[in-house]
Amino acid sequence: MKKLKCHCGDIEAEIKVPNKLEKIIRCNCSICKRKGAIMSIVRNEDFRITKGKEKLKIYQFHSKVAKHYFCSNCGIYTHHHPRINPSLTGFNLGCIDEIDTFNLQNISVADGNNHPLDKKK
Predict the structure, then answer these.
(1) Which of 89, 87, 86, 93 is nearest to 107 (CA)?
(2) Positive/negative CA dihedral, 24, 79, 2, 73
(3) Which pLDDT band, with edges at 50, 70 and 90, does 80 fall under?
(4) Residue 36, by phi and psi: left (phi above 0), alpha (psi -120 to 50) or beta?
(5) Out of 2, 26, 85, 104, which residue is the most buried by the measure of CB atoms under 10 Å away?
(6) Mean pLDDT, range 59-67, rounded to an integer
(7) Which residues lie across from 110 on neighbouring strands?
(8) pTM for this predicted structure
(9) 27 vs 81: CA distance, rounded Å
(10) In whole angstroms, what is the distance from residue 118 CA to residue 97 CA?
């Protein structure tokens, strides 16, 4: 179990993750390139807000399917539900104290600029 928290501590979550994170990504979509977060992903049932749910704010854009959550006090992005699969929760690895994102290597880049749901037939 990993503990996620925003910068000010108003938001906390528990994440059930395997001993080794299976998927670590960055994304090049318009919002992710601006927030610069390194993320991982779990099933929704493996992510639980334990403190500050009322302090979370949501940001949606474009198709308004994905939900990006951030702390209303410190502004830190904590997690999101991707539009490709809303049954998953992506979370900001920088919000987990015991993970040093500067030591992570070989991080995959998700091509959010060419999202499959944006493809025209």
Answers:
(1) 93
(2) positive
(3) very high
(4) left
(5) 2
(6) 85
(7) 27
(8) 0.86
(9) 14
(10) 35
